[in-house]
Amino acid sequence: MSGVVASHGVTGAQDAGAFLVRLTRLDPGAVVRLRSYRGRTDLWAMLPWNVLVSRSVDGEGPGDATVVAADLLSQLARGGRSLPARRDADWRWGLPPEGARSVERLPAAEVRRIAAAAAGTLRDASEHGVGGQPVGARALRDALLDHVAIVVTTDSTERIEISQRLVQGVTRMGFLGGRPSSEESDLSDVHVRVAGRWVGLAAPYGVAWLPAVNQLGLRPATPHTFG
Length: 227
Fold this sequence. Notes:
It holds the Pfam family DUF8010. By secondary structure, this protein is an alpha+beta fold. The chain contains five helices and eleven strands, in the order αββββαβααββαββββ. The longest helix has 21 residues, at about 110-130.
């Protein structure tokens, strides 16, 4: 007796496709985890620089399943409904807990500027070295990604550090949207979120997450500053 072919259950093909195209460009062999809830499906993936990214799309989804991202993209591109071969054992990462809270709002233009400055620094150092001395590309990239790009400080002196890894996550996955505008609205702002020991950047089209550098008892407080 033939088995029933499972459906991926994603109806927001355009949104899912945008996520998967970016992901597979960065990592052709990436896997994506689909988790469903109340008529929506969250797509989760790990980027090559160890940042967890997520986008919510329309569709009942398959419940909870991990597949090869390129296979799911192929299904969506041809209008297929079948869930690709499951690769649940290939998902090796935890997820942030529910109940994330926003502790600061950053202008999207500032996040774009920080990302562009990092790209320029990497390009310049790759061409000219540091202090006139050559630097290995991998070591240079890792040092740049680990750089703390933004520090959010609450009035109770708590510090939330946002590394360049998160900034690159939201920008290179296209979570900020299209071309920057000189009058970007509040809807395009990026929110700093905290969920348990995780810190995230939530942009209009997706979220990037990393475990917090320090185990801090963070709580929202006003006013907030960042620098």
